[in-house]
Amino acid sequence: MALSELWFLLVAVLFIGFFFLEGFDFGVGMSTRLVARSDLERRMMINTIGPFWDANEVWLLTGGGAIFAAFPHWYATMFSGYYIPFVFVLLALIGRGVAFEFRGKVDHKNWTKVWDWVVFFGSVLPPFLFGVLFSSLLRGMPIDENMNLQAGFYDYVNLYTVVGGITVTLICYLHGLLFLTLKTLGDLQERARLMAQKVILATIASLVVFVGLSIVETDLFQFNSMATIPMVIGVVVAYALAILFIAKKRDGFAFTMSGLGILLTVGSIFAGLFPRVMVSSISETYNLTVYNAASGAYSLKVMTIVALTLLPFVLGYQIWSYYVFRKRVDAKDLIY
Amino acid sequence: MSELFLARFQFGSTTIFHFLFVPMSIGLVFLVAIMETLYVVKKQEIYLKMAKFWGHLFLINFAVGVVTGIIQEFQFGMNWSEYSRFVGDVFGAPLAIEALLAFFMESTFIGLWIFGWGRLPEKIHLLCIWLVSFGTILSALWILAANSFMQEPVGFVMNNGRAEMNDFFAILQNPQLKVEFPHVVFGALATGAFFIAGVSAYKMLKKQELNIFRKSFNIAMIVGLLSGLGVAFSGHWQAQHLMESQPMKMAASEGLWEDSADPAPWTLFSILDVENQESRFNIEIPYALSYLTYEELEGSVPGMNTLQAEYEEKYGEGNYIPPVNATFWSFRIMVFSGMLMIGFSALGLWFSFRKTLVERRWFLRSMVALIAFPFIANTAGWIMTEIGRQPWTVFGLMTTSASVSPNVSVGSLLFSIITFTTIYAILAIVLVYLFVKEIKKGADYDAPQEVNVHVDPFDKEAYQ
């Protein structure tokens, strides 16, 4: 395997890690409006992700940094090409990040209310926009011979990308609800589970529409069908099992299945792209691939050594932090 | 308004705003770590209260620093895509390593620190805050490694019109990094120290919780004085190195059109007439510039006209003179602020030693005002460094005008500038409001932080 291919895999792993981890904290953020009934419940929910969300977000920053270092052309084309969507992603992430810190700092109803809405929109908007982004990546964007993307509104926003956005949002919402069943107790836990039962049906419906549209709109299932088709079948199996586990109140297994669903969904997007990183709708010859968008061999080698040395430590202390805060959150937890 | 102007405006404004919080975070967390260490060693409750109080302020500041940093990472691709294509190979690596090495460390251990009170053993909890502090400094190292490459490109070869890395260790041993990193880190420590000293002075003026704030003041001023001296020395090395790496920046920061006299005096004040390439009403300190650049009392410093001719020969037609006024004045503002900080921290320690600090109300009032100066110095320092490098993005390799994204419209740029500016303004107001609120609350206030949990979700019950 060439180093540039390894880096494509690493970027995929970073994005899977991002959607798996920040996926549930986005979902918890959505639940603060859709499931919580009181300020106390909102506070408990936010406390379930309190120690983790910041590090979860770093998976995205590292993913972005990895693209910059390993695939400078991908980084340049994507971020300049998706300028306005990224402005919204950044605004959402900024607001969300400070809202967690600020919401409990002033003891006034309206103060908390404002920051709670920021938490909610800051949790809905990024997964939706990432869904739009990834589905439009699959569909292809007008990338010219200089690798510059010059798109119009309907290149970003169309039926396929909107369905993609809704799907990713629902996937994260479900993941967050299942995380809450693991981290809360009593009435709150029960309501999160009931909501998960409804949301999983919506998620599956949305996924089915998305896969259907993918067959029409993209070459996802022709290009690397050997990889993507089994993965998509895996997604179906994972969510089917999740339905079963939720009903049987086996929350740990249900959460694992929804995590597996995320892994395979993001995995099949990356597998469907490979070896392309961005598809040009103008001409196949303008596609950005892991070969023509990559850094030099030396740079990739250095980065590989650094990444493979550091990754075990990073994973080690992150797992440790989840172990330290393994207990369920309770009404007396008033940190945020 | 051109795309280039707007992209530069956005980069400048978001970076300056971000860099108000970064040094403060680096400095505050270092001091909080010292306070918690004192608590663990001496077992006195007062240090715990100090660590928690300044820790609260640190966390508010840290949150804004983190979120404004997210924009920084992505705007290279958004606004400067040609630059990203050209140097991503070299410049992306330190950025990615920063995320992998420093961001993960900071964000994980800050979570453990905030939620770990009473849950982690004392020493492990202490280790967490030191790891956060270490992470912030490590973060600075990698960012400055990337910045140093822009000031003084090393460790690369040109290949297919791109700068490709060929020596990673050269990038880490960049001579520019060796002078820039200590300067920035000492500056950051001084920023945190002067904030703590200033707020403590305010509390002493109000005669509130004297014990805690006198102690805080002393710890802060020791760090403040040492790092102030560190800033001065490393700044001096940096000036000397500037003569080798970017003499044009040096000439502009002195307003020198023609080569200087030998020995060269340092210009304290001048009216710069950029159009006629003249500097009038100079107030000068004899020998000072020679000493600053060569550590000797002789030696002439080349002027902008000489260098312009040299650069034209080397790089072709063009204007290689950076905005002179901005470079000249930002340098002076930085040096003046730094001197003031060293003087006041020495004075503060002296008064404290004589136990007359609390009576000297003029001094305490000055310390409150002095909170602003490290921020002014940090900002001025970056303005000098980055504006003084113009017209280059990467010195000698790529100009700023060639770096901008060709496919981002004026409308998009205006939209992002307006939204970012609005949200930054809101953040600034909220931050100041929260700071004032927390400071008024004082250190003796203990927010309810009861942690009470029972069931383990990863136990058998969850997988039954």
TrEMBL record, chain A:
> Where can this protein be found?
Cell membrane
Q: How does it sit in the membrane?
A: Multi-pass membrane protein
The UniProt record lists the keyword Transcription: no
| GO function term, MF aspect, one | oxidoreductase activity, acting on diphenols and related substances as donors, oxygen as acceptor
Keyword Transmembrane helix carried by entry:
yes
Name the UniProt key words of this record, in alphabetical order: Cell membrane, Electron transport, Heme, Iron, Membrane, Metal-binding, Transmembrane, Transmembrane helix, Transport
Entries under Pfam families matching the protein: Cyt_bd_oxida_II
What's any GO biological process attached to this entry? aerobic electron transport chain
CC terms in the record's Gene Ontology section = cytochrome complex; plasma membrane
Q: Where are the transmembrane segments?
A: 6-36, 57-76, 82-102, 114-137, 157-182, 194-215, 227-247, 259-278, 298-320
Q: Which InterPro entries match?
A: Cyt-d_oxidase_su2
Q: Which NCBIfam families did the record assign?
A: cydB (TIGR00203)
> What family does this chain come from, according to its entry?
Belongs to the cytochrome ubiquinol oxidase subunit 2 family.
Official protein name in the record: Cytochrome C nitrate reductase
Automatic annotation (TrEMBL), chain B:
Classification via Pfam families: Cyt_bd_oxida_I (PF01654)
Q: Name one GO cellular component term.
A: cytochrome complex
Q: Name one GO molecular function term.
A: heme binding
Superkingdom of origin: Bacteria
* Membrane topology note: Multi-pass membrane protein
Membrane-crossing residue ranges in chain numbering: 20-41, 53-71, 91-115, 127-150, 184-205, 217-239, 329-350, 362-384, 413-436
Annotated family: Belongs to the cytochrome ubiquinol oxidase subunit 1 family.
Recorded hits in PANTHER family, A to Z, give:
CYTOCHROME BD UBIQUINOL OXIDASE SUBUNIT 1, CYTOCHROME D UBIQUINOL OXIDASE
This chain's protein is named Cytochrome D ubiquinol oxidase subunit I
